[in-house]
Records
---
Amino acid sequence: TEPLLKVEGLKKYFPIRTGMLGKHTGNVKAVDDISFFVNEGETLGIVGESGCGKSTTGRMLMRLLEPTEGKVTFNGKELTSISNDEMRKARREIQMVFQDPYASLNPRHTIEKILMEPLIVHNIGDPKSRKKKVHDFLEIVGLSSYHAKRYPHQFSGGQRQRIGIARALMTNPKLIIADEPVSALDVSIQAQVLNLMQDLQKELKLTYIFIAHDLGVVRHISDRVGVMYLGRMVELATSESMYAEPLHPYTKALLSAVPVPDPEFKREQIILEGDIPSPSNPPSGCTFHTRCPFKMDICVKDVPQLQEAKTGHFVACHLYNEQLQH
Ligand code: SF4
Ligand code: MG
């Protein structure tokens, strides 16, 4: 069967303009040729440091940001070739949950009004059924219809994220793109919201793309995980394979910072040196070479391609070239 979402060769280049005449002198390659798919009912985690292009990717999937190049196919429909009008309709089935629900909830509107808005925009139901749906979904996300007349500032951070999730669910979407949905919350609250998202996924048969900067956060919720660095996907594998045997030095470094529950399990520790280079002037070859303890001559010259190193486990790193040829 076809995956629910298929992304092929997706790119987002922002032009750099300099001087009085705004001469085009180069590009910031925010997302540079990434491809992946998401199966129905699955959760794909996308992880990387800020500025790696993960949010830009999420926004391009919904065409909140137009891709420079590439193809996005959702549920058999090529989103990158439809009109803006058709895209607006398609957004009924793809919704986003944001990092900061406070910033995305209108402070002057009641929760009822906020949750009703997507139903009005997509012309779903009548005033009475809309109201019922709002109240039902408040219950579903662990709040109560009693909260409907309150304003966003009257809720805690965790409750606001529940409201953000309820809003995303109002149109009965198939796919939810959650961009760091728990990053702004206390650790104790994070677990509650993650559990809620997992319960909702089962109940409502949702498919998730879960964006995070921390591999620890996505571990339990993701079936597969993609790691991004400077606009490229550098590793993509099942959660199990990624955490048991990370291949890319960058993934290993990210995992070095994640505590392991089993004290007997010793992970190879890689401490990252230096900062992420500027995406407007990325290093040649493997863009990770300025920080990689395993750098070889070829790494400075050739861009490593994402290739299958083990069944279902893809990596973009020259360390695995030998292995790939045999
Ligand atoms: Fe390190 Fe080279 Fe692999 Fe890049 S390609 S991660 S520089 S070993
Ligand atoms: Mg972001």
---
Amino acid sequence: MVLRKDFLWGGATAANQCEGGFNEGGRGLANVDLIPTGEERRKIIRGQKKMFEFEDGYFYPAKEAIDMYHHYKEDIALFCEMGFNVYRLSIAWSRIFPNGDEQEPNEDGLKFYEDLFKECHRHGIEPLVTITHFDCPMHLIEEYGGWRNRKTIEFYERLCQVIFNRYKGLVKYWLTFNEINMILHAPFLGAGLYFEEGENQEQVKYQAAHHELVASALATKIAHEVDPENQVGCMLAAGEYYPYTPNPEDILLAQKRDRENYFFIDVQSRGAYPAYALKELEQKGIQITMESGDTELLKEHTVDFISFSYYSSRVASADPEVKKTAGNLFATVKNPYLKTSEWGWQIDPLGLRVTMNSLYDRYQKPLFIVENGLGAVDEPDKNGYVEDDYRIDYLAQHLQVMKDAVELDGVDLLGYTSWGCIDLVSAGTGEMKKRYGFIYVDRDNEGKGTLKRYKKKSFYWYKKVIATNGEDL
Ligand code: P53
């Protein structure tokens, strides 16, 4: 057998993309609630347009999403039927602390996740919990400026204290920040950052990143204190940069682009700002305000494992004539060897092996693939059944490569959770139409539909994959 016997197989979701129930159980408003579908979405995500209240004429998909808030029992039973032994989900911060800065948590919110985790365990499923997946209470953004403000560390620390104690024995795998490097590309999602005109955005982003990095180290510290069984991971939006040509200029640039992402994980896993980052910040005139004790904290509380999302490799070209035409929030040069998805994301299974090897070489810690998958349009038949061979092909190719990285290269891999195991709202576009799931949810881009769940062809395929521990793809 290629994969370890206790390999963790499952799927991943994020609160804001599936829960809905945005004003139920005492939940406060969060940045993610206020991001509509349509043209303006990207600007808002990037912190370049302010929409701090619901406005007429817009559709806000997170308000109801797929209503997992009320359907979680049914959904977990379906995950169990597929054979999941892990389910990655995130906690909505504003369910636990509606404003973010209260002294006391909201019991309804705490109880909701307690029930959910217990439901997982009843089904033999270990929860893997992302503490923040692109969400930040709106009050923290309006009152403090989100992660630009050092005080946010305190509020996050309070959240961690509460959830680690309350869920002790129920949760042992934790991720501190989803795709922490996303702060550079989608700062309103990643850190609740909105920029005033004329502001030095890079300065703000790296200062906010420092706060998140300190918060992540604190979370790791507290998690280990509360329960030595706790395993804490960092989480990177990964995908190796390839040089567009063998021109040394392209090679150097690809290395630089990779380092923009590695920077975060270097701090979280190796425990210090790397030399290249210090030099780069200095050259850009960015000054990070640190407090005494930060350096020691980062050094002493590094993560236990490295988790990452992988959708695609990326391409760097130093030639200004070569245009960036493909990709997603990570705009990249088109790779002529790769096909793209319906949303223009380049598909590169082998790039997963490259990426896994780079991460394992660099950090020498167990890896965990916590997102991977294909966003595609599904056409259900009259019974709601979707024959999604395209999704099966995509996943089978990636899983084969994942096994190669383990078997042929010796990478230590803890598990695999495919993204959006049940159809949910897209983070990038807000659409429902961009589906990743093994389970079809009857809901469309405008929020119409019965919310009924249907098993796709890939449901039965993934069940077989898990039952054979990945032997039969
Ligand atoms: P959607 C861009 C590039 C890489 C990862 O994305 C990304 C994004 C955001 O568009 O986000 C992660 O839904 C993220 C998930 C997200 C998933 O990838 O735009 O952690 O929340 O849904 C897929 O197709």
